Amino acid sequence: MSTPKVSYYVKTATATNGPFSITQLRGMWCNGAITAADLFCISGQPDWHPLSMLQNTLEAPAPVPTVRTPRVVIVKAPSVQPQQGNPGTAAVLSFLIPGLGQLYRGRMLAGLLSLLFVAMLYASALPYVGLFLHLVVIADAGATPSARSADGEKSLVGLIFLILALAVTVIAILMNIKK
Fold first, then answer.
1. In the chain, where the domains are located
2. Taking Cα atoms as reference points, which of 19, 22, 24 lies closest to residue 9?
3. What pLDDT is attached to residue 124?
């Protein structure tokens, strides 16, 4: 069911006009055609009332503030490169303890694997192979970033070293098992 529309009549100092809808009254109020001193009557009722009784209804509602959503700008953060360190210091550290230079330069996996492989080879029956790999680890730790690939990824030399070290370690372990 829809609610019936209410009609209003307005009596000013000069005339009585109507019927008007509340929307029409609001427009007349905002334009100054009617004031709080004028009277209104609801259609079908005999009593006249001052328009000031409808003042809150007739005044234009305050504009709803528009909320501006902030513009989101996504900025790509620069990639964080590990601490490069001094290549000479890294080479000396790897001389003292295999793989320590790689750890110093921020290459954790390379440092730990170097330490593991060289230590296993020194402890096995192949200490000369361990010494050779130890020298390779020192050279790798002292290599400058330009000697590596341009974007900082693992170089082909590092991959070859890793495969060689793994193969030699496995061979050394197998030779010790047979004895």
1. 8-58, 87-178
2. 19
3. 76
With helix as H, strand as E and coil as C, how does 13-75 read? CCCEEEEECHHHHHHHHHHCCCCCCCEEEECCCCCCEEHHHHHHHHCCCCCCCCCCCCCCCCC
Backbone angle region of 91, left / alpha / beta, with phi > 0 → left and psi within -120 to 50 → alpha: alpha
pLDDT of residue 162: 66
CA distance 97 to 111: 10
| Residue 10 predicted with pLDDT over 60 | yes
pLDDT tens profile 51-109: 888 877 777 665 667 777 777 777 776 655 555 788 888 888 888 998 888 888 888 88
Return the ∠ at Cα 6 (arms to 31 and 47), rounded to 5°: 85
Question: Rounded distance, CA 27 to CA 24, Å?
Answer: 5
In angstroms, the CA 162 to CA 154 distance is 11
Cα 93 from Cα 152, distance rounded (Å) = 21
For residue 22, give the nearest of 43, 2, 1 by alpha carbon.
43
Reply yes or no on domain 8-58 having CATH 3.30.1490: yes
| CA dist., res. 54 & res. 69, Å (int) | 36
> How far apart are the C-alpha atoms of 99 and 115, rounded to whole Å?
5
